Amino acid sequence: MIKCHLSRLMGERKLKIADVARETGLHRNTVTLLYDETAARVDLEAIDKLCAFFKVPVGDLLEYRAEEA
Asked: Fewer Cβ within 10 Å of end Cβ, the chain: N or C?
């Protein structure tokens, strides 16, 4: 399972979804799906823009967690 830490990154900086969408140029829906962790797939361009905006490596935005049996 892939865990997205966008909501934590946004919370630490007191940012709203609209702020991130405006500053990165991503669609609001893309940011919302990542924030809510309901995205089925994400473009590498979106990950690149978010990492650049927050100045973090991919590992700080996304995390792999093994499924528990």
From this structure: C
